[in-house]
Write a structure and sequence with these properties.
heterodimer; A: 173 residues; Aminopeptidase; 7 strands; B: seven-stranded mixed β-sheet; 5 helices; globular
Chain lengths: 173, 190
């Protein structure tokens, strides 16, 4: 099915998104490179939406015709680090490869620039093996800054991470 | 932070032996030696904190921040503090990573002291914290002297983070360096 860019939107999560959320957050293919452990129960997914997504400074459902097909967040740091924000995203595997995350993230960043005026830097950490996600960031206009050796620990292993950044006044493609 | 080598203007430091430095805990009785670098704008230029304007301010900083710090040492010559070096562990899933920071009185710049201190700390910290995998340093892009310290100490330069942190009111670019527990330089003892 062709995806019209006008049908892609972002909005805050609602508890009623839980079944759609489980489609991607319960899929190991999707959660392989995320910080999430694959969600295995509706209860844990409901708790996550209620306790994390909804109160979050900027967490959004990526929607197709207002149905949740993915997740994104933008999280500013504080204090002397308040000029930067971390970004992250995931998408149901059925919709990979169609530019949906690129579109959704461009909308999100445009909103975040207005909502968080202290933030001048958006950054993303991507695993070395996660090439499709690196391409997403490049297509948005993020710059690859380097490879950070043994930077973080996830799913039982210390991992090298590639870091990308987009400055608030960088053009988005 | 250390700068490029400069001709020392103070004759007292020309004949001193700088190969014998030691690291130890700092305490309130060191306050006068501490004020020599902590009140010097040349020294604090690239530090996240402002120069201490009085002994009272300095003592409060020592009590509130330095003394409770998990890993903070004075860099000493003849057991007199001339600077400081610290290692700060990250939290949660990043706890296998820690950040190094150091500062040195300006009359001791350009003599390899900070490099020696960093090498000593690198060897010691991987021994003290066996879970540590990565020691990193983030240096202001304009602080060439401090970048040279980490390069000479065997850290690997990984890239530049643009507008990464705010210092003295401006967003600054930071050069990022790392030393892994598995890097050969992590095992060298000075």
């Amino acid at each position: 099915m062709e995806v019209n860019s006008q049908e892609i939107s972002i909005r805050p999560y609602e508890i009623t998104d839980v079944d759609d959320f489980m489609v991607y957050a319960g899929d190991e293919k999707v959660t392989r490179f995320t910080r999430w452990d694959t969600f295995t129960s509706k209860d844990s997914a409901t708790a996550y939406i209620k306790d994390t997504c909804i109160p979050h400074p900027f967490c959004r459902s990526i929607c197709l015709n207002n149905r949740s097909i993915g997740f994104l967040f933008i999280k500013p740091s504080s204090g002397e680090d308040r000029c930067r924000a971390d970004v992250g995203y995931s998408l149901a595997a059925e919709y990979w490869g169609r530019g949906i995350v690129v579109k959704a993230m461009k909308i999100a960043i445009s909103e975040a620039v207005k909502e968080f005026p202290d933030v001048v830097r958006f950054q993303a950490f991507v695993e070395v093996d996660n090439k499709p996600s690196q391409r997403v960031l490049e297509k948005i206009g993020f710059l690859r800054e380097g490879l950070l050796r043994k930077y973080t620990f996830n799913k039982g292993e210390v991992r090298d991470m590639v870091i990308f950044s987009l400055l608030a006044n960088d053009p988005m493609f | 932070m250390e700068e490029l080598p400069i001709k020392p203007q103070d004759n007292q430091t020309q004949d001193q032996d700088f190969s014998n430095i030691n690291l130890r805990l700092l305490d309130l009785s060191d306050i006068d030696d501490y004020m020599v670098w902590a009140a010097d704008d040349k020294v604090t230029q690239f530090c996240s904190w402002e120069s201490h304007t009085s002994k009272e301010v300095a003592m409060k900083y020592m009590v509130d921040f330095i003394i409770p710090h998990p890993w903070f040492r004075a860099i000493c010559i003849d057991d007199r503090p001339i600077g400081a070096i610290s290692v700060t562990q990250k939290c949660g899933s990043d706890s296998r990573r820690a950040e190094i920071g150091y500062v040195l009185g300006s009359k001791y710049w350009g003599k390899g002291i900070a490099t020696r201190a960093v090498k000593m700390v690198a060897a010691e910290i991987f021994f003290d914290w066996p879970h540590l995998e990565r020691l990193e340093g983030l240096v202001d892009v304009d602080n060439i002297g401090s970048q040279k310290v980490l390069e000479k100490a065997g850290f690997q330069r990984e890239g530049v983070f643009r507008k990464y942190f705010i210092q003295k009111g401006r967003a600054r670019d930071a050069v990022v360096f790392s030393l892994l527990s598995t890097d050969p330089q992590a095992k060298l003892l000075v």
